[in-house]
């Protein structure tokens, strides 16, 4: 099941629009993930001097929390942050990131960090119609609902 759940995780992460990234034991902040399945990594565009940037300079540990009903994914992902490259920034830059930096991609404050997950606890839920059916069925039969897949995965 773990390998199937890992595949489900990556498939659904492609649809996640935001989550909470915490690094250096600081408070979590909302971040938009850019999934790189080929390299089993998640990229974040952040600001120089942020907790994520500081942690990436030393290969620090971080956590990314996801609760995305549209993607059907809830996860607590733990991993390591590293400094990104200008080439990768060119590849993943988008209008949403540009909204946070006055000079766009060329703003001196722009920093790219690479999050490499090493473990995660994952809940992959059914779509809303299937979930409602499970709730109704559970109430009718007095059994607990089947909410999808849940487990820990190692990357």
TrEMBL record:
Stretches of the chain forming a coiled coil according to its record: none
Domain General stress protein FMN-binding split barrel intervals: 6-145
Organism: Roseivivax halodurans JCM 10272
Protein name per its UniProtKB record: General stress protein
